[in-house]
Known about the structure:
The structure holds two protein chains of two kinds. Chain A is built from twelve helices and eight strands. By secondary structure, chain A is of the alpha+beta class. Chain A is globular and about 70 Å long. The two termini of chain A are 38 Å apart. The longest helix of chain B has 36 residues, at 187-222. The mean pLDDT of chain B is 97. Bound molecules: flavin-adenine dinucleotide (FAD).
Amino acid sequence: MRLTFDAADEAFRADLRAFLDEHCPPEARRGKDFVAADEEGVPDWARAWQATLFDHGWMVPSFPPELGGRNCTPLQTLLYLEELAAQGVVRSVHFGGYAIVGPSLLEFGNEAQRALAAPSIRGDIVWCVGMSEPDAGSDLANLSTRAVADGETFVVNGQKVWTSYAPFADKCFCYVRTGTDPEAPKHKGISVLIIDMDTPGIEVRPLRHITGAVEFAEVFFSDVVVPADRLVGELDNGWRITMGSLAHERGGLWVEGVAGSQRALDGLVALARRKGLDADPTVRRQLAAAYEKVASLRALGYKGFASFAQGSSAPEHSYMKLATSELRKELFDLGLDLLGPYGSVTAPELAEEGGRWWNGFFISLAATIGGGTSEIQRNTVATRVLGLPRG
Amino acid sequence: MDFTLTDEQQMVRDTARALLQKECPPALVRAHADDPAAAAPLWGHLREWVVLGDGPTTDLALFAEECGAVVAPGPYFATAALFLPVLRAAGLTEEADAVAAGEATGTVALAGADGRWCTDPVTADPVRTFVPEADGVDRVALVLPGPELLVVDRAQLDITPVATLDTSRRVATLPVPPGARGVSLPAEALAAAIERATVVLAAELVGTARWLVEASVAYGRERIQFDRPIGSFQAVQHQLVDMALDLERATAAVYYAAMALDAGDPDRHRAAAVAKAAAGTAARHAAKSGMQIHAGIGYTWEHDLHLYLRRAYASDDLLGDVTFHHDRLADLLLG
Lengths: 391, 335
Ligand SMILES: Cc1cc2nc3c(=O)[nH]c(=O)nc-3n(C[C@H](O)[C@H](O)[C@H](O)COP(=O)(O)OP(=O)(O)OC[C@H]3O[C@@H](n4cnc5c(N)ncnc54)[C@H](O)[C@@H]3O)c2cc1C
């Protein structure tokens, strides 16, 4: 066990800092809990910023230069994520392309599809990922959007829901049912298609978040014709692609969870001081208890990273999504508490810090739902990490 | 921050685990509750490891974790984690060398009437409370205002054992001899020694919590009700996951604090408070949920669970409980 990084890694961090100082636009320097409610689409600054990161090898630094990286080590990826998080810098306002689709295409795609990886990571192509359906949320394998193979094409009918970025995406990485054997297990017979969002027969009906933001949507498919060469991987074998997120970063994704909690905690401390609550014994203990959780979860992330960097899987990291998302909810809840009667005020001229606390609280409510609910996370840890029998 | 164990750290852990599993079975822990002399053979094996008290906090913490996992009784913690470092802090080299060589046992008396292990300032109360193993060790180091340190033979003090929930760790109260004076003890060195002992005790608590989680997971797999293992019920699974999560974060917090102390990192004071608070939280949580999951059988005197429940609560209280360390953290964060 040791506390410090060696010279090469410190040099890596220094290069990154210099790059950020020179290139990072002010709009990209904000915590995720600050996303404004009226934002629609990908703003110009975000497109330019993601392209700049890619062109300088700082978009996904573990990738080779032609994919927006610089072949860095896993530990350096961790330093990278940590530095971005510490400065509150966002890389992209749509993570589907660089975090899920690009890496999945590289792993499972044919040659033409692999060629889409670079522009996807650079953000030139904006993706949505169509998994959830009205009857397939946690139980994703229950999805029923059907694609019928018709020689040179697939014909797609069905509906997706809560599809992030669908209102402005160029393409959909879409999970469809292709299997025809009604006796087969539900997760067999699923395939992945790349569907252009301007194909006739697609209707996108934006849904507002509870924050008021427009980010996800319902997507309806009516006899949508998709060329057969848009099939990713093998027919009926799409289930394994569901796991294809950014393997290189998997050991570091917790960094954002911890950093988000740290930002919320720093905000709480500042808020308590401003409101003169920093001498209140109850508030002092609440803040200390929150600090204990943030600090211990950061240590846990690093502890898991030690095994991850050596190529073994890290059971510690299975806990991190659950723990950090639940913690952020607690922290913003406490923030609303500290504001007293003003906690529920949204009027812009009166809401504390531009509505940071109510907005952050609302956003924190999504984090324990999206990407697998907290209950599903606990089920997974129970069976995969603790080795308990399935229910 | 790299949590990978070095070969040497791995060896400390493996050796400690093998030794303690073998030499400290539950029967010995139970026998010690009736007669403290029953722990003497265990001390015979542990005395050669007191020297870890002179080395890096990480190594001593790894060793202590294994002590906590078998709720080891006897003077090891008091001698290696408290007495030896405090002797060093006071520059009492000759006696410290003998203790490090396993030749004598000892403990530290610091908390006053309120039971709090506060080093700044050291209490002027005429009494010392919660002195670990005071009625069994050879020597007692009394921390006096100044601070000063007076080291005396146990027989010179009027020691009253105090029964607590925990029969695996003895504590006692003793009066400070009137007019007692000792050698000068640099305040910073004293504070550092106590902070270090706090992290080592947190490591012990992590070991205790680990046993509770592992025993409960194992019971979840084997106990059958409604024709199925109870560990297949989601209400049981989710309790186990939440216990395990608190254990995992406490373990990481303790190792981090040990590294921070060894490196003299500016974050070490906060890290130590986080470690003890997280370990106390994890152990208490694991004890309560572990009892719920074991249910009837766990509530019996014969089952070992209550040995761990007792140790968890009493060790949380010793050297500052969760609330004490939250208050300390608040002072460090908010001034
Ligand atoms: C902001 C946001 C963005 C999203 N973006 C996308 C996206 O881009 N693409 C996409 O495909 N989807 C997206 N989703 C959908 C998300 O993946 C689903 O909401 C999530 O998987 C849960 O499904 P559900 O809402 O149908 O809830 P359900 O599965 O119906 O669950 C309802 C409740 O029952 C519990 N529950 C269900 N099954 C179990 C079980 N086995 N054990 C215990 N409890 C259980 C759940 O934990 C939950 O509390 C997004 C959601 C949100 C909130």
